[in-house]
Design goal:
alpha+beta, four-stranded mixed β-sheet, 30% helix, globular
Length: 103
């Protein structure tokens, strides 16, 4: 299911992004299901990220992947929404600090 532009108000929703090793799920808070589910490696290959480079410690490639998901799957600008990103509880502190700097 693709986002069709039928939000009640831009202020009502945040983008929810869950990128796992197998697939990325992206959608809007308050919805019953993600708007898009994309295989992570397929999305990475689509934007030119070579295998093995996509990892939680490589912030730039993950940021590129996220922008692809916002632009091509949701067809929105990430700057227009709050974004909630899920992460594993066991992620190293250094990686968490790097993610807090992503805008």
């Amino acid at each position: 299911r693709r986002y069709t532009g039928q939000l009640a108000s831009m202020d009502d929703s945040a983008i929810v992004l869950d990128c796992g090793s197998h697939c990325c799920r992206i959608g809007f808070g308050g919805e019953d299901a993600p708007c898009a589910v994309v295989r992570t490696q397929h999305a990475a290959k689509t934007i030119g990220i070579r295998p093995g480079v996509l990892s939680p410690g490589n912030v730039q490639t993950c940021e590129d992947l996220w922008e692809y998901l916002f632009r091509e799957q949701l067809r929105v600008s990430s700057r227009d929404y709050s974004v909630l990103v899920t992460e594993p509880a066991c992620r190293p502190r250094q990686d968490r600090e790097s993610w807090s700097e992503v805008s």
